[in-house]
Amino acid sequence: MLKALSAATLFLAAALAAQAQTSPVSFDPAATVFRLDGGGVSYVFGINPRGELQQLYWGGRLAAADGFAQAAPLPEWASFDSSYTNTPQEYAGWGAGLFVEPALKVSFADGNRDLVLHYRSHTATANGFDVVLKDISREIYVTLHYTMDPESGILARSATIQNREAQPVTVEQAAAAAWALPPGHYTLNYLTGRWAGEWNLTQEVISPGARVIESRRGSTSHQANPWFAIAAGRPEQVSEDHGEVWFGALGWSGSWRITVEQDQLDEVRVTGGFNPFDFGYVLHPGESLETPVFYGGYSASGLGGASRLLHRYELDRILPHTAATSRPRPRPVIYNSWEATEFNVSEAGQMALAEKAAALGIDRFVMDDGWFGERKDDHAGLGDWYVNAEKFPHGLKPLIDKVHALGMDFGLWVEPEMVNPDSDLYRKHPDWVLNFPGRPRSEGRNQLVLNLARHEVRDYVFGFLDKLLSDNDIAFLKWDYNRNWSEPGWDQLPAAEQKRVYVEFTRNLYGILAELRLKHPKVEFESCSGGGGRVDLGILRYADEVWPSDNTDPFDRLSQQDGFTYAYTPQIMMAWVTDSPHWLNRRATSLSYRMLSSMQGSLGIGANIAAWSPEEVALAKRLIAAYRQVQPTIVQGDLYRLISPRNGSEFSATQTVNAEKTQSVVFAFIHSTQQGRLFPRLKLKGLDPATEYALSPIEGKPRAGTPTVASGAWWMNHGLDMDDGFRGDFQGAAFRLDKR
Ligand code: GLA
Questions:
Q1: What's the predicted TM-score (pTM) here?
Q2: Fewest CB within a 10 Å sphere: which of 389, 642, 667, 723?
Q3: Mutate to test the pocket of ligand 1, among 194, 446, 534, 550 (most ligand atoms within 8 A of CB)
Q4: What pLDDT sits at residue 20?
Q5: Closest atom of ligand 1 relative to the 413 alpha carbon
């Protein structure tokens, strides 16, 4: 069996091999200045006379001939703020009177906790640099990795911390990177939520002090997502289309923290990486710790421009690729039985649903929870990954064969990192879970978290998944994770080493996924954690899609999808059409509205289709077929959020344009018409002004007299009007424009 990390490395190396372009990077030896250019962005830092690595510039691309003088440290501010704490460093050690968030804090075996990192050497890498720093006296080395994306200008930064001392050193805090902006007025944007309520865009003025966004939960979390965008200006000035935006996202699916602070001199610093809360990683002599990657980008075209860059980067550089395709393929249209049957799955029942799904034109049939172990409800079975013989007396094969015969591929739900105390696995290995001996083991959804950091657990999880995929013709796994950590002990290790669990758990998760992908290259994965609890650029290196929320209410989803797309591409945003009235809000909506809401992302059906009327089947079939024709534009095109559904907006609208600017798709939704107000005219964006586009409705009508063919200039300057009858509650319309 391949070792976990080597599998991850091999897998990522293959993905990176597809990225041949280069971007200009340079080092000016006279001024000791490093410069990285990519897309519309320049990023510049230098070595100041003290030897610290100091940030010099991050923003719009500069002319090639523009030069920088050697970095000059900021002066001290009286006796209270030293030059060391005032100077924006690329990666500051906690020492020498540093009061802003440190990038690195360590404690040495002899009690010394002072760390001051100075430049030692550097090497040029593909599209970037590796810059080595070292403490002024101790043998602690930090290599900062910088890789600039030539197209988007997104910079990937991370650090490797190495202990070459003769004694162990404990890393108490390790960021992936620190970013800095000069004093000014800024608005911070970030994404917050809870189960069934993820992806709320939160905006606030950046003020003196620190805003911490984080997860202490052992995984990414619903509560906050590791993404930020800092827009120039106050909240009322922040726009979708205009203004400077600096944004970033952390690639880590364990506990994480991003601190955005305005320091004593009003500079803004953003520091992010492992969450230092309850952190401690002992580096024995010769050992290294590699941080997650913190990606940072810049756009001069508002929050919309920022998200379009990030979407492109995710599609081109993050999501799993095969070398043969430059972008991941649009997601199959899936059917998932969860909301229809919950745990009540059976061979006959699933086969009946599969027949209905095939008749709708579905590509992939996914059986959700309930098929394994003694899984009748959520009290038992997790950990026992054998097929339940009562429900599937002949194993999964008859169902899978049937699904294939119907022209679909087959997907299955798993929750590999969990165990119910009522399971054979737990009865056999009660020590395999995260716990502190002698303390209660707090349950969530009647389950405990397996300590995936342990090699036996890792091997067990890889082993059963490998067998499942080897024994069955499975195209897709929905990988779920339905609780957060508690009592995160790892009692097989000495007390001082137990906190390694925060790093090794997540590394093993990535390692298992990487190894499965290498061994079963045709299998695709979805990252689900009770909805959107594990969505980040770390897991997205191994997952083809995510489940944004267990909340499938089509109206709530409009705002959730709006929030989601600030950070993540619609390509990965799975959206199911489910039943009405919705189980969560008890809201009744038409099938047309539900379909259109889900068609904004990667479409799936999750309703009890056995109960649908012939009219509903016909409507869904027609809209699935219409969706397929424009899906690449919707999920991989440039997204413009024309009218936000946030803050109780009466209307909302989005538009996507494909890269060639030959096709565009518009969605328009009414929440609740008031005072007979007509839907606002939609001035479209991103089209080629000189190209002629033909308008055709997917659902709904344009206003009488709207031309069927007009120039991009017409659609962008004059705009598109909805039919005057487009009024009411929970109404939707969609249109496509195609180059003539
Ligand atoms: C989680 C997922 C759901 C479903 C259930 C099954 O809540 O988010 O989509 O798979 O688990 O138990």
A1: 0.96
A2: 389
A3: 550
A4: 52
A5: 10
Q: What is the CA(86)–ligand 1 centre distance, in A? A: 48
For residue 417, give the DSSP letter: T
> Is residue 397 a contact partner of residue 370, using CB atoms and an 8 Å limit?
no
Give the closest residue to 70 by CA, choosing from 86, 54, 83: 54
d(CA 599, CA 625): 11
Is residue 576 within 6 Å of ligand 1 at its C-beta?
no
Per-residue model confidence (pLDDT) at position 335: 98
* Residue nearest ligand 1's atom 2 by CA: 530
pLDDT of 439 > 90? The answer is yes
Token duo for residue 712: 């991009």
- DSSP of 439-492, one letter per residue? S----BTTBEEB-TTSHHHHHHHHHHHHHHHHHS---EEEE-------S---TT
Per the DSSP assignment, residues forming a β-bridge with 414 are: 479
- 325: tokens are 């395709």
| Best CA proximity match to 362, nearest among 187, 568, 576, 210 | 576
Q: Which residues, other chains included, contact 163 with Cβ-Cβ below 8 Å and sequence gap of 6+?
A: 139, 140, 169, 283, 284, 285, 286, 287, 288
Whether 227 is in the pocket of ligand 1, judged by its Cβ within 6 Å, is no
Residue 412 CB: number of other CB atoms within 10 A? Answer: 22
Range 389-398 burial, b when 16+ CB lie within 10 A, else e: eebbeeebee
- Decide: residue 284, CB within 10 A, 0-12 exposed, 13-18 middle, 19+ buried: exposed
Q: How far apart are CA 695 and CA 687, in angstroms?
A: 13
Index of the ligand 1 atom closest to the CA of residue 530: 8
Identify residue 610 by its one-letter amino acid code.
Answer: A
- Which bin fits 218, alpha (ψ -120 to 50), beta or left (φ > 0)? left
Query: DSSP character for 67?
Result: -
Structure tokens at 624: 């699935």
CB atoms closer than 10 angstroms to residue 49: 11
What type of residue sits at position 245? V
Residue 76 banded pLDDT, cuts 50, 70, 90? very high
